[in-house]
Design goal:
- This protein is of the alpha/beta class and 364 residues long.
- It has two domains: 8-130 and 293-331, 3-Layer(aba) Sandwich (Rossmann fold); 138-290 and 336-356, Response regulator (Rossmann fold, 3-Layer(aba) Sandwich), CATH 3.40.50.
- 40% of the residues lie in helices and 20% in strands.
- A seven-stranded mixed beta sheet has the order 3-2-4-5-6-14-13, with helices on both faces. Strands 8-7-9-10 form a four-stranded parallel beta sheet, with helices on both faces. It has a two-stranded antiparallel sheet with strand order 1-12.
Amino acid sequence: MQIRKSVWLYGVCILLLTLVMVGCGSEKAEKTEDILIGLSLDSIVVERWQRELEILVATVNELGAEIDVQIANEDIDKQNEQIKYLIEQDVDVLIIVPNDARAFYDVISEAERNGIEVIAYDRLIMHPDVDLYVSFDNVSIGKGIAEKLMDTLSLKTETGLSQPADEEEAANVYNLLIINGDPKDNNSKLLNQGFYEGINGYIESGDAVIVGEIWANEWRETYAKEIVEDLLAKGTRIDGIIAANDVLATGAIEVLSKNRLAGEVFVVSQDAELSACQRIVEGSQLATVYKPIYDLASTTGKMAVSIAKGEEIITNDTIYNEYKSIPYLKLDAQVVDLKNMEQVVVKSGFHRKEDIYRNLGDGK
């Protein structure tokens, strides 16, 4: 699927901020057709990864280089073996979406010994030989959806739409549930940091309490379903749910729907999957986050080829990965709700309007 590049305009601006020379291996390909990029993906279960894989492959091929893709299907041992295989193929650059931020120390050290540059794609890798990190501002994403949730809850109270069932609820203390992502994924921790930046003021003032919080191993929606079911079974009121991605939001909303609470409990998440966008226009989800994955994937593909050719690349930040500060190309994202769905998601070409409104059947 071709995605329009309107969001690329902001990327051009931020790319002018800082010039960073990424260290080169001992030898670089003299011709683009001699370049081989290795791509190691944790999985393509989530919708976004399938699309990004297509964009990355197309970008590298359009530049005249080759790309070898390995998909580990969420298996750490398998991903280790696949990265070793790519090293044996003498790739010029490795792009890795890790299952576990700390699981690939030895194999990445081997890549470094072989003069292979390593790009951590979207998920940070804890290793001193990582050369570049390309991702979104995950702290900002977490904070953005948390603030959206709290603003909506506050507005609901101010406009009198909230009808407390008893005197205890009349205090308007918001009961919040946090469903974090996989604890092995550094993005989960960055998102969690953002969540709390968005809600800490309410917690400290006594206007909100956390009634439950979990970490979902492998990003499985089963964890989301279980904690919502448990809280409701105990009679715990839930006013808002912050989910680390749309898959986890799917699980939570499924349980809310069975209990006739979908739309009554505000749910926010991120990734702007089609199902999440559909839920937003249908009223069962409050918001998600649109991330311009075309920019992320295509820019990473271009950078990988440039690094293989020994060229200078541009980043706009650095990030500490427990060993050193590494060059970081940080892209922005945008919170999406019913009001700006068409302006952001449809206009960017990320999803078609008819697909988003498909289930409404009202001609939108």
